[in-house]
């Protein structure tokens, strides 16, 4: 293969590199949102603001889904790795295995169910609105 063809812009990057660059792009959204919330002293987590910015740009069509899809899929596929340090911290806190721990587990389970139900309702509303628009 000639050297010019190896650096041609028409050559597609490998999927792992594309996913990595897309993940870095999403991390930049998070970082920008963290900086904005810190600078303006907004009472909203930067991660939530970044998610809203990302969603808004996707909804407006300024950001195409295929520009971030592989990176998001890769992050979701490896999501459990981000929770391993939290699980290892349980070893240091034996009090979590007492009545306090049971209360915490109940709160986590109930809040998880509430979030899942809320998400399901929002997705259902979105599907209905999208179906109504397509008519």
From TrEMBL:
Principal cellular location given in the protein's record: membrane
Family matches, as InterPro entries: LrgA/CidA
Localization per record: Cell membrane
TM stretches of this protein: 48-68, 97-127
Assigned keywords, A-Z: Cell membrane, Membrane, Transmembrane, Transmembrane helix
The protein, known as: CidA/LrgA family protein
Organism name: Luteolibacter pohnpeiensis
Entry GO terms, CC: plasma membrane
Domain of life where this protein originates: Bacteria
Pfam families tied to this protein: LrgA
Mode of membrane association: Multi-pass membrane protein
Coiled coil among keywords: no
